[in-house]
Structures are given as structure tokens and as C-alpha cells.
Amino acid sequence: MSIRQLTVFVENRQGAMAEVTGELASHNVDLRALSMADTQEFGVLRLMVKDVDAALAVLREAGHIVNVTPVIAVKISDTPGRLAQALSVLDAANINIEYLYAFLTRTEKHAYVVLRVEDNDAATNALVSAGFKLVEESDIQKL
Amino acid sequence: MEAKRYYQEEIETMPLEQLRALQKEKLLKQVRHVYENVPYYRAKMEEQGVTPDDIKELEDLSKLPFLTKADLRDAYPYGLLGMPLSDCVRIQSTSGTTGKRVVAFYTQKDVELWEDCCARAIVAVGGTKDDVCQVCYGYGLFTGGPGLNGGSHKVGCLTLPMSSGNTERQIQFMMDLKSTILCCTPSYAAYIGESLKEAGYKPEDNCLKAGIFGAEPWTEEMRRDIEKALGIKAYDIYGLTETSGPGVSFECEEQTGMHINEDHFLAEIIDPDTGEVLPEGSKGELVFTALDKEAFPLLRYRTRDICVLSRKKCSCGRTHVKMTKPMGRSDDMMIIRGVNVFPSQIEAVLLKEGYPPNYYIEVDRVNNSDTLDVFVELTAEQFEDTVGKFSARENALAEAIKTMVGVKPKVHLVNPKSIARSEGKAVRIVDKRKLH
After folding, report:
1. Model confidence over B90-121: pLDDT tens digits?
2. Cross-chain Cβ contact B380/A65 below 8 Å
3. Which of its termini does chain B have fewer beta carbons within 10 Å around, N or C?
4. How many domains does chain A have?
5. Distance of alpha carbon B213 from alpha carbon B378, whole angstroms
6. Is the pTM of this model over 0.80?
7. Cβ atoms of residues B92 and B222 within 8 Å
8. Min CA distance, B380 vs chain A (Å)?
């Protein structure tokens, strides 16, 4: 069960990040979570938004390079060691994690951890079999 | 005994009138040789309605058609060959646009004459058989190494065929074997100078007295820097593979321009737009006619280099005409770290790798070494959400460009439509080196 992440190319220059967030703000796009990976040369901005299609249209219209990346997100209860358990489940299933980022929710006593793996289905199966609950896009919208 | 001042004194100091007569005799013979042996050029002459009988005086040269780099590509590989392949003993080559190279052929006599030209350049900077000549131009298809190597042998110098790179070893040999003459690109000479300093050597610690530096544009300021860093006199040398290689012209002790070896190469200055021959002293495109070359006898070859010729009497005693350093190009070729680079080559790589042909190129010189930055517009297809994969893509593009042009650029991927579109001819190159 995958959910859609927006992945935005950000040039390495002053103000580039502000342009992207500014575009989203001026079109009232609600951000749910974000993560930025950067090198000396460029940045890759990963976004969870309330309305994926609207945000995609806004950013493309503004001339940004945006891809939709299917990722999975797992609900992690707010107890120490729970994330480690989730990751060891994936490790046991031989699933490599390319990157992850986490965010807390206001309504549930859960953290949401977004995971980018090669095989979403395999990761989903492994986590669900181990008793973890996955986040759906509707969960993101409700936040 | 006073050191020899000329390698071939009679030719190099020949009175102008006599030189003219020699050129005329050679030209008439060469035009006939080309007409009879190079069908590609013969067709061009026929198209223009010219036969060898129309060429009676040096002034008739302007009746002949030009050759350009495009002709060399069209005729690749054998189309401009003037001798049977069995009489050729060597090829040299340059990188060319879109992967097609320029291949030049040499008979043994061609090699000898080319090496003579390089020997003249070495003697002109004070070279004798007692010198140790360190050649760190590249060896191989590039003409720099083989040309100066041959010239150095002819002068009788102890020749160090170092080729380029491995600076630590260059310095070790330079110090241990007491090199007195250094031959390389000016940027590499500057780099060697810096490396010597880093290794704790002072300019007076080495035995060098002179350097012969060419294959890329350099400034008077750079000359002074190199002279100071190495404790030498730095001399310019000019040439191109199409006309043989380095040694077409070279600087003498006056350091006020390069004497063209006029007994072998007839020089003209033309208006690059109209092709009209300009009077002496005018600034324009340099055109060469090879008077002695057998295997690759190019007539009226357009070099695309812009310069000025001068017959002002030279204190060195040489009578051959002097050319200024090239002041620019009449095409968009760039010389980066001694390598000829055309924007069209980079464009071809972008298209092949799936990038849009929206790009610009920035060339600069940092610490006397050329830098090449290529800015390319990104497409969604080329974008990756993981940094590792995306960096790998950027690097793959840089490597692909290196394979094509011979110089590895720094690639910068930028947002679509962020590179300015201009009406008409796009400005693709920003050269910040201020070389001219």
C-alpha cells in the first residue's frame, strides 16, 4: 500500500527553497511533512501534502521539476524502540531503505515514518505481518 | 664558441625577395601536385573554374578555393590525401566535432620538415646540443609531444619524453636530470611552477632557462607569472594538426610575435565574412597554404584564428613574417586545457543522454588552470528522488562529455526554462578567462 510523495528538484542557490514553498503557500497548499536532502550541487525536497494533485499542478505550472514517488509510511506508536523494531522487520526481509523521515501527528499517539524502499509491496507485507499499521493517503488528508 | 642562433640560418634569414621567389616556385609545384593527386580539391578548383595554369604568381593564390574544417570532416579519412598510403608513415589527429576527428597524414619527408620547424623554435630560445629538453606535451595522436620531441632530437638536446601529467615525476626528473628547456602547455607550466613552490623549491633552484609553451591561448600576464615562478624566459609556439603541428610559427628572443616558417607555410589574412584577402597589418583570419607537405597538402586552409601579421624588421635577424598571438576565433571553438572544444560537441552529448539542448558553458581560469562548467536544464525523466542516484546521473553526464571532448566538465543541472532563450543565435558560451 503506497502513498504519493512529491519530490521536487531544488537548485543550489539562495532563495530556491523559498520559491518552492512560496508557490505552495500562495495556492494554499497544506504541507503535512517535508524532508530535504542536499548536496553541494542541488537539493531534493520530499513533500507530503494534503492535496497531492493540486500541489503537483501548482509546482509544474511554476516550472519546477516534480515527480510523484510512491513510498510507504508506517505508524509507529510513541514508545521507545518501536521504530527500531519496524526497521529490523525490514532488515530481516532483506529490504533496503533508501531514505526515511518521520513526523509526529497531533491527533493520534503515533509518529508517521515515511520509507523509501525498492519494493513497496514486499515492505508492506513484511510490516503488516509483523503487526504494524500503514498510513493511507486518507490519513494524511485528515491530519 | 657562441651558441648557434638559427637552426637553418640561410632559410630563416633569407632576404624577402629571395624568400618570395622560393615560395612562388614551391606554390606552383604544390598546386599542380594537389590538382593531380587530390580529387576532392581538384573538384573544388573545377567548380571555381581554376586550373594550375591560372596560378602563375604568388598573388594568384587568392584564385584558389578555401578549405575549412568542414571539408576535412567531409573528406575523412582519406579524401585529402596527396600521396599513396604506402608512402605515408604517420598519422596525427585532433578531436573534432560530433566524434569525427581530423586525421592528418605524413610522409617521412613531412615528418622531417615538421621536426625541422620545431628545431628552429628550440634553437630560437637558445637550445643547443648541450641542453636537456623536457617535453611534457602529450604524446600520441596529439601533435605537441611528437613535434617537440622530434625537434629536440634534431637539435641534439638530451630529450626527456615525459608526456603530460604525473607532476611529481616531472619535478623529480627536472631536478635530478637538470632540465634546461621545458616544453608544455602554458597552463601546465604554471602548474609545475606552483608544484615546485609547494615542494619547497625556489625559482633559482632549477636549471631551466627557457620554456616553449603553446597549444592554448595565454596572456602576457601569464607569461610574466610563469617566467617568475620558474626563473626562465617563456616563449610562445603555434601550430595546428591540419598544417603539421606545433612549429608553424614560434617566438624568438624579442618575444614580440611568432615568426611563421614561410618557406613551408604561406600565410594570408582574410576577412572571415567575405573571404577577401586583407592588406598586410590588417586584423583578420589566418589562412595557411602548405608549400612542402606531400601527404596532407592543404591549400588555403582557414584556421579560424584571428590575428595580425607584421613584417617589421626583427632584431633576431629572421626575415620571416611575424604573427600576433591569436586574438580570438571566427568560430565558436574554445581551447580548454589545450584541448579544442566546440559547443556543438557538448550539445550532441546532451541530446544523446536525453537532456534538452538548452545549456550554457562557462569557461574560466582559476590558478592558471582552465575550468569548464556546463549548465544543463533538467527534465522530469532525468530527475531522481534519491541523492545518490541523481548525483550518479550528473556524474555520468560529465563522463560522457569527457569521452566526447577530452575535458571533464563540472555539470550543473538547473530548472527547466531557467537558461535564457535568446532570439536568433543563442549565447552558449561565457568565457571569463580574458585571454584576448
Report:
1. 999 985 544 567 899 999 999 999 999 999 99
2. yes
3. N
4. 2
5. 39
6. no
7. no
8. 6
Cell 620545431: give the residue: B118
Of B380, B390, B416, the CB nearest to A44: B390
A vs B: CB pairs below 8 A: 48
pLDDT at residue number B380: 86
The verdict on A15 touching B (C-beta cutoff 8 Å) is no
Query: Which pLDDT does position B97 carry in this prediction?
Result: 44
Taking alpha carbons only, the member of B120, B159, B157 closest to residue B139 is B159
Domain that holds residue A129: 71-142
Q: Helix, strand or coil for residue B59?
A: helix
Domains of chain B: 9-331 (3.40.50.12780), 335-431 (3.30.300.30)
Residues A75 and A47 in one domain: no
Q: Measure Cα distances from A65 to A62, B252, B363, B380 in Å.
A: 9, 57, 27, 6
Stretches where chain B sits below pLDDT 70 are: 1-3, 95-100, 421-427, 435-436
Q: CA-to-CA distance for B144 and B419, rounded, in angstroms?
A: 37
Beta-bridge partners for B255: none
Transcribe B184-231 into DSSP letters.
E-HHHHHHHHHHHHHTT--GGGS---EEEEESS---HHHHHHHHHHHT
CA dist A58 and A63 (Å) reads: 9
A22: domain CATH number is: 3.30.2130.10
A85 and A119 housed in the same domain: yes
Distance CA A58, CA A47 (A): 13
The total number of residues shown for chain A amounts to: 143
Q: Inform me whether the pLDDT recorded for A107 exceeds 90.
A: no
State ipTM.
Answer: 0.83
At residue B309, the pLDDT reads 97
- Are residues A57 and A105 both part of a single domain? no
What's the confidence (pLDDT) of residue B220? 87
B434 and B219 Cβ atoms separated by less than 8 Å: yes
Facing A67 at nearest CB: one of B383, B394, B414: B383
Select from A12, A34, A41 the residue whose CB has the most chain B CBs within 10 Å, as the one to mutate to test that interface: A41
Same domain, A89 and A62: no
Whether A11 sits inside 8 A of B414 (CB atoms) is yes
| pLDDT at residue number A135 | 94
Kindly state whether A28 is in contact with chain B, defined as any CB-CB distance less than 8 angstroms. no
Does residue A7 belong to the interface with chain B, where contact is any CB pair within 8 Å? yes
Return the exposure string of B47-80: e unless at least 16 CB atoms fall within 10 Å of the residue's CB, then b. eeebebeebeeeeebeebbebbbebbeebeeeeb
Query: How deeply is B128 buried, as exposed, middle or buried, from its count of CB atoms within 10 A (0-12, 13-18, 19+)?
Result: middle
Per-residue DSSP letter, B141: S
Bridge partners, B124 (sequence order): none
Shared domain check, A58 and A79: no
